[in-house]
Amino acid sequence: MPKDTIYRGASDKTKGFRLQKIRAIKLMIEEIIKNDRQLFYTAIEITEDVDHTIVNESHNESRVEELKAYDNSAFTLQSEAVKNTLVSFFDIYFKNWQSSDNVKLGFYTTATIGKEKKKVLFNGTNLAPPAQPILKIFSDGGPLDQSTFEYFKATILEEYRSQYFKTPNPKSANYAQELARQQNKLDNSYFPILKNLTLEEANNFLDKIYWHFDDEDNDALKASVLQLIKTCPLSNLSNEDKEETIFCELMELLDERQNDNVFSNKFITGSDVKMVFKNAESSISVELLDPSWERYHEESQRITDKRNLGDKLMSVCPDFSKQLHGIYSREACTVKIDTNSGKSFLALKYRVFLACAEYLALNAQSTYTQDEIITAIGNMLEKSTATIEALKNDFTYRVSNEVIIKSIIYDLFDECFIALNEV
To answer: What is the pLDDT of residues 121-147, one digit of tens each?
Structure first.
């Protein structure tokens, strides 16, 4: 019969939440470095802080981690973070993995190991602390002896009971019912198994847990992940020196997936990671991005002339060719698709706008012939192209050829940024 276990969701308002995401990225990149064809799926905040499952032909291997960001702290078995983790791992282990070798439970913390203290149980029993810190025994992978096991078991039993059994108020009208409900919850948990736990069973359970104390904090862990990204087989000349971009994209992807309401969508696979590396090949480093992209939307708020491309052509040249107008409109549409595709394109569009606006400020007419319009557009294209070529000494644009720039000019007319004459 399935047991009732407590859901433990971590808060996303702590620095530990960032630690979760960085650890998840590290596990994924390490998996790809070992075998870039390995199937896996990874998520945060599912069972514990990080869940990482490796898919093999005959079985799956699961790695579940609890992460504790406690700088300048020392943990003992009596620390709440440690006791809570052990209760949680106990539930996971006895629920799914007691008879399996395909699970690894991990405790990862920036805290150090402290000396155990005397434990006084709720019933008044005094437990003498072991000579050696229990967490040191855990991290060294050594088995517990009988006396240390008794200290460990008594501590975890009391913690487990406190989490699953909340003593009701004796003065409450529903005291008897609530007492029975709490007892039923405890009886339907893994508490009865824990009460009968033997030394051998405890050591088998603890053998599934790997412990990391005094480990990397957020900054140090990020630095090690960036180095892993650099050495990953997915890295190549096209995404060279874009480790920071790849890291940020993976962090963002974890955020998006963690907030997805569909359970299966919460996981990131190896294919997702490969796509991030692939997309980085065409991305632009922040240092090379033209910052003028921010001005594009600001400029759009200043628009007062609401005429489209056709209205503007006809207002200065009533007999302008409808066929040519149609070509201009279709060319304008080809870049409307790209307007929201990235900061680089918005920067390009804003620079073309500035070049065209400057030209028109000096050369605008109240009326034009068709040939004069074609000439004016050609002059704006020439000026815009020269401007972009000069800027490319300092910035990188995702696209910048004359065909695209010409289409942008048509679109600037259509989107009311510029006009051949004053309204």
So the answer is: 766 778 888 888 999 999 998 899 999
Residue 238 per-residue DSSP state? G
Q: Is 357 exposed, middle or buried (0-12, 13-18, 19+ CB in 10 A)?
A: middle
Residue 108 is given by DSSP the state E
Separation of alpha carbons 247 and 202, rounded Å? 39
Q: Answer with the one of 234, 259, 280 that is the final residue of a domain.
A: 280
Contact 80, 68 (CB under 8 A): no
DSSP E strands in 229-295: the ranges are 268-269
Question: Are 174 and 251 members of one domain?
Answer: yes
pLDDT digit string, tens, across residues 30-79: 999 998 888 899 999 888 889 998 988 777 888 888 888 787 789 999 89
β-pair partners for 107: 66, 211
Segment of 162-176, 231-245, 355-369 carrying the highest mean pLDDT: 355-369
Q: Is residue 393 part of a domain?
A: yes
Residue with tokens 């499952």: 53
User: pTM here?
Assistant: 0.60
Strand 126-127 relative to strand 119-120, pairing: antiparallel
